């Protein structure tokens, strides 16, 4: 498994993104401290220079793992379940732009907050679910055309009123039936919604595409109470060999969090390897 860190060049006062600021600086930091990849969160993919980010990724030997799209929902109000067709259209078009950048970078695209809420009245829930299905399907097809994977991320009940659990995400993936849609497991959200995080990871199995490794307090691994040894053991058991990304708050500060999360998880992985899991 490889370790990645999150970054954004955008304003992100409350977002759980570890590195903030010009991408030239954050790429350099991630490379300096020995990360294997970097996850880039963008409100709009044109908030960065595409040639610059491709060049930075190559020069720093730091693959862009996935592009986060949540800021399009938080800052611009774009979601797949919005009652207004024009808003849904803009949400899909924004994701398609992310997909084009992802194709240039060889990365994936994450769909989390952009999934939207079902809201009230309850009678409209079925219609909004259908809106989501249509939008996500269109994005999956657009991504497949250029060889890009999408990661579907469930959120906890306090941030989203549906699509909260592993089982719900797997159901959506099965319903769509596209091979380029995978499940993104975020341990912060799972700590709230899942009975047993390790068991849910084993349930997901080969549908796992990406991991957000975050502690119970939304800080880096090792700063809360989550049983990461059990989580990592479950990932090993299902043969997951992708990225573990730290989508966490920069506490006590970005550099300290950058270093401590990396050393903590590397230590656990080494211990599991030495003991034959």
Features:
45% helix; 8-stranded parallel β-barrel; TIM Barrel; 10 helices; alpha/beta; 277 residues; globular
Description:
With 277 residues, the chain is an alpha/beta fold. It has a single domain, classed as Alpha-Beta Barrel (TIM Barrel), CATH 3.20.20.150. Helices cover 45% and strands 15% of the residues. It is built from 10 helices and 9 strands. The protein has helices at 23-32, 50-59, 70-74, 85-105, 125-145, 166-176, 187-193, 197-204, 228-237, 254-274; strands spanning 2-8, 19-20, 37-41, 64-68, 108-111, 150-152, 181-186, 208-212, 243-246. Strands 1-3-4-5-6-7-8-9 form an 8-stranded parallel barrel, surrounded by 6 helices. Strand 6, helix 6 (166-176) and strand 7 (181-186) form a beta-alpha-beta unit. Helix 4 runs parallel beside helix 5 (125-145), helix 8 (197-204) packs parallel to helix 9 and helix 9 packs across helix 10. The longest helix is centred in the middle third of the chain and has 21 residues, at 85-105. The chain is globular and about 50 Å long. The protein starts with a strand and ends with a helix. 48% of the residues are buried. The mean pLDDT is 95.
């Amino acid at each position: 498994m490889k370790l990645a860190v999150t970054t954004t060049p955008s304003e992100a006062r409350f977002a759980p993104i570890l590195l903030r600021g010009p991408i030239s600086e954050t790429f350099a930091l991630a490379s300096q401290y020995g990360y294997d990849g970097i996850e880039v969160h963008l409100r709009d993919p044109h908030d960065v220079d595409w040639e610059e980010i491709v060049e930075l990724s190559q020069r720093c030997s730091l693959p862009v793992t996935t592009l986060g799209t949540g800021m399009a929902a938080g800052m611009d109000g774009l979601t797949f379940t919005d009652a207004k067709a024009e808003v849904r259209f803009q949400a899909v078009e924004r994701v398609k732009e992310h997909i084009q950048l992802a194709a240039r970078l060889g990365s994936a695209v994450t769909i989390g907050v952009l999934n939207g809420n079902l809201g009230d009245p309850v009678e409209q829930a079925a219609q909004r679910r259908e809106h989501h299905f249509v939008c996500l399907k269109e994005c999956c097809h657009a991504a497949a055309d250029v060889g890009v994977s999408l990661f579907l991320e469930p959120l906890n009940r306090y941030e989203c009123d549906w699509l909260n659990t592993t089982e719900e995400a797997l159901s959506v993936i099965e319903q769509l039936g596209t091979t380029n849609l995978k499940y993104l497991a975020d341990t912060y959200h799972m700590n709230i919604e899942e009975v047993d995080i390790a068991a849910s990871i084993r349930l997901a199995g080969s549908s796992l595409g990406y991991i957000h490794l975050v502690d119970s307090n939304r800080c880096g691994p090792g700063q809360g109470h989550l049983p990461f040894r059990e989580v990592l053991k479950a990932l090993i058991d299902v043969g997951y060999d992708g990225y573990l990304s730290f989508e966490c708050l920069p506490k006590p500060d970005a550099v300290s969090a950058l270093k401590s999360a990396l050393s903590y998880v590397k230590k656990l992985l080494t211990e599991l390897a030495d003991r034959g899991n």
